[in-house]
Amino acid sequence: DGCTSILDLDYPKGKQLGNAIHEVFEKIDFTKAKMPLEDFQMDSEVNDLIDKTYAKYGLPLKRHPSWHNTTSKFVWHTLNAKLPVIEGSQASGDTFSRRDLSANEHFAEVEFFLEGDLIHANHIPQTGEYFSKGFMDLIFVREINGTKRYAILDWKSDRMDNDDYAKPESLKDKVDCEYAVQRVLYAYCLI
């Protein structure tokens, strides 16, 4: 029962859904996903968070009960998905899940500023003027072989065609094409 099979045909798309799902991931206790899916879906804190967040963004879960089920499955599967452990620039062969990250090992919505020192025709940036500023969705820290390693995670709520999920190169191509600049900018801000 993977994520590609849980999306209802009438499940919402767009900015409101993206904002709602980001906020759920920002506020949820990752370790709750250690419980079985059925228990996770019955958990009152999880249900309350999903209900309140979706209502805040005008997504009517009460009129579409299947959306709640879809959302809780999506969140549970995302928090349980195996991520590669990266050492330097190489995958070590080990994996971990976001559910393994305690509250003091991850930081949501981390603000960043890159001061502008680019000189354009007739414009010299002033103090406090930024080349770029924003928020990184999640920074997490893990200890690997006695060394603290930091990583950046950016939640994406894009929907791809089902056939594209079956081809890992499709997802990699999408990320490389659409998010390469963001990845480099965030990495620069982290160091």
Plain-language structure description:
By secondary structure, the protein is an alpha+beta fold. It has six helices and five strands; from the N terminus they run H-H-H-H-E-E-E-E-E-H-H. The protein has helices spanning 15-27, 37-42, 44-56, 65-80, 162-165, 168-190; strands spanning 82-87, 90-97, 106-115, 130-144, 147-153. A three-stranded antiparallel beta sheet has the order 3-4-5. A hairpin with a 2-residue loop joins strand 1 (82-87) and strand 2 (90-97). Helix 1 (15-27) runs antiparallel to helix 3 (44-56). The radius of gyration is 19 Å and the shape is globular. Mean pLDDT is 81; it is low at 1-5.
Q: What's the quick description here?
A:
This protein has 191 residues and is of the alpha+beta class. 39% of the residues lie in helices and 24% in strands.
